[in-house]
Amino acid sequence: MSEAAAVEERVEEQTDAYAEGSLDEPGGVEPPAPVETPRPEAPTANVLKGRIKVADEVVEKVAALAALEIPGVADLGGDFERAFESVRDRIGVGSKRATQGVQARIQDQQVSVDVTIVIVYGHVVMDVATEVKVNVARSVSRMLGMRVVEVNVTVDDVRLPGQDSPAEAAPAA
Q1: b or e along 12-28 (b: 16 or more beta carbons within 10 Å of the residue's beta carbon)?
Q2: pTM (2 decimals)?
């Protein structure tokens, strides 16, 4: 007997038992087990077509935030970038770029990052730079799922005590 015929017979038995009122009594006909219909499985990432492209700016933001997490990093960017941001801040045009001092290149799911930092006076430069290098590589790798092949850290300046930002260091006009 085919599966469809068996299900049809069980439905008829259940209908008859319900009409007689014996469905609720012990020994009555039990409802048929639900018939499972095969579902198509969701496609896996290996089978599903399409591309994922991560912009260089995304890597740069992640790297910048990772660098700023390290104690002893006062700011990001070289002299020119920080001077430009200081002027923009004074005249009130725009806001600080989140990727200042960071440049990333993605090629074949491999990332190389250049970070320019300013160190707070009193911290050991090599220790801070090494921590920045490791944290940037770890964060980019973990958050973006890409292999970090290179992190270059350039220490451009030292922030002196009491010098909170470049705008405060310059004399007010």
Answers
A1: eebeebeeeeeeeeeee
A2: 0.61
